[in-house]
Amino acid sequence: MAATTIPRIKKRTKPFKRHQSDRYHGVKEAWRKPKGIDNRVRRRFKGQLPMPKIGYGSNAKTRHVLPNGYKRFLVNNARDVELLLMHNGSFAAEIAHGVSSRKRIEIVEKARVVSWEMV
């Protein structure tokens, strides 16, 4: 397992909801920044929905780190597994979606030979 001494903490786990998405069916919940000149959310009035801002960002050292302590590395072919050898155990291989089952078997076999972590 990769060594991570800093605990992985998400500052906000609830998703940011779009203003008035609870009121109108046509306004979906996916976040959109309010742009209106009189909008209460944009003006950050008390009691309104929170807006995404830079302060909610994760720690740079633990950003994109998986629960097992590794970061993802997308593998498209067996040669990509050799690239991981240079990254001294901080990345785990993830096979790309469009890779065929025959190539997947080759990639997994190659990762097993070099004893590499797969996601």
TrEMBL record:
Tell me a GO biological process for this protein.
translation
Kindly indicate whether the keyword Manganese belongs to this entry: no
Top-rank taxon of the source lineage equals: Eukaryota
MF-aspect GO terms: structural constituent of ribosome
Q: Does the keyword Hydrolase apply?
A: no
Query: InterPro entries, from UniProt?
Result: Ribosomal_eL32, Ribosomal_eL32_sf
Q: Where is the signal peptide?
A: none
Keywords, alphabetical: Ribonucleoprotein, Ribosomal protein
Where do the record's region annotations for Disordered lie?
A: 1-27
Q: Where is the composition biased (Basic residues)?
A: 8-18
Q: Name one GO cellular component term.
A: cytosolic large ribosomal subunit
Instruction: Look up the coiled coil feature and give its residue ranges.
Output: none
Q: Which family does it belong to?
A: Belongs to the eukaryotic ribosomal protein eL32 family.
Q: Which PANTHER family match?
A: 60S RIBOSOMAL PROTEIN L32 AND DNA-DIRECTED RNA POLYMERASE II, SUBUNIT N, RIBOSOMAL PROTEIN L32
Designated name of the protein: Ribosomal protein L32e
Q: Organism classification, top ranks?
A: Eukaryota, Fungi, Dikarya, Basidiomycota, Pucciniomycotina
